[in-house]
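Help needed: design a sequence for this.
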């Protein structure tokens, strides 16, 4: 706890303690206490007020750290009042008992309460009022801090997501990818004009999707699969029978969400990290089941050299961490399989 905060709490404790005792003294005797004639009482009041005050701060700090209360605000409010009231009364009676012992007054707590029954009732009511006011004040501060921390955390996550999105976007718009596409168009244009036109349209669709995905943190599986279909068309034109992509995604999962271009990165990685031809084609399976999307390819001979922007799986993993505790799973044996969690869409309304 910061020194400035401790001093502030201590001043408030002393002020409330003196005000409460002065009021009780005046209501009973018709005058205010003369602390200069009873300096021991004055010091003891300072000591007792701080014991009670810091105990209440500690109790509420502990309660506020329990995550359960975030979804039970009303219960937290009532529980705080009850617990604080019990703690305050207990400490007040302990302090009173110690004062009677130390000052050697010929009183017991029981006798004192019986003699000053009206004051006892006032003490109970005043403590309850102060307790309720404190819980309201503490609740407002806690709510503000929790809201502020949530806003800061959301801003950090949003910024992190934007950085990851940009990193993925930069890779997918690499000159190498554009160069291969232009080479394919160049070879097609003299062979089949219609196919060239279709290729350019699919290429435009993929670039449009990549550019628009930079504005979205999550995207539906249907949109991603539509994009993959266009992307795979480009691969088929470029590699012919040397590449085969099988997509098996039930409509049930269409509205489930995932970070954009995640599947495309995995398909592209399969192309980059395997040597394939018509005799030994690259087969990629994309399957949705059990709230997961599986991207699997048989491991073929690795190329002698390959371009790598070192994002791939790491980028996908980090983007998932922004939205869920579910982890992507990688299995490597005869096949290289990546399992991506599908995130349930938020219910409308």
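Sure. Designed sequence:
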């Amino acid at each position: 706890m910061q020194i400035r905060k401790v001093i502030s709490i201590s001043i408030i404790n002393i002020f409330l303690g003196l005000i409460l005792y002065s009021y009780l003294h005046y209501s009973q005797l018709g005058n205010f206490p003369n602390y200069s004639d009873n300096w021991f009482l004055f010091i003891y009041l300072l000591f007792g007020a701080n014991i009670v005050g810091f105990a209440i701060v500690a109790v509420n700090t502990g309660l506020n750290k329990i995550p359960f209360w975030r979804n039970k605000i009303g219960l937290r409010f009532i529980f705080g009042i009850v617990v604080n009231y019990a703690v305050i009364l207990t400490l007040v009676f302990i302090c009173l008992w110690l004062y009677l012992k130390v000052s050697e007054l010929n009183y017991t707590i029981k006798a004192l309460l019986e003699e000053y029954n009206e004051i006892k009732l006032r003490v109970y009511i005043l403590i309850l009022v102060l307790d309720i006011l404190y819980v309201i004040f503490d609740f407002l501060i806690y709510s503000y801090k929790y809201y502020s921390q949530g806003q800061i955390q959301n801003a950090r996550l949003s910024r992190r997501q934007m950085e990851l999105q940009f990193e993925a976007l930069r890779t997918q718009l690499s000159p190498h990818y554009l160069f291969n596409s232009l080479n394919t168009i160049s070879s097609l244009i003299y062979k089949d004009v219609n196919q060239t036109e279709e290729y350019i349209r699919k290429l435009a669709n993929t670039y449009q999707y990549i550019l628009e995905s930079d504005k979205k943190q999550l995207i539906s599986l249907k949109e991603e699969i539509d994009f993959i279909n266009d992307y795979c068309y480009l691969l088929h034109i470029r590699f012919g029978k040397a590449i085969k992509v099988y997509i098996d995604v039930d409509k049930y999962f269409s509205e489930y969400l995932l970070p954009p271009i995640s599947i495309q990165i995995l398909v592209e990685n399969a192309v980059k990290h395997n040597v394939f031809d018509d005799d030994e084609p690259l087969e990629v399976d994309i399957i949705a089941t059990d709230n997961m999307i599986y991207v699997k390819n048989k491991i073929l001979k690795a190329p002698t050299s390959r371009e790598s922007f070192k994002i791939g799986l790491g980028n996908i993993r980090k983007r998932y961490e922004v939205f869920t505790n579910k982890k992507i799973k990688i299995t490597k044996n005869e096949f290289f399989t990546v399992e991506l969690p599908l995130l349930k869409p938020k219910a409308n309304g």
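The chain is about 65% helix and 10% strand.
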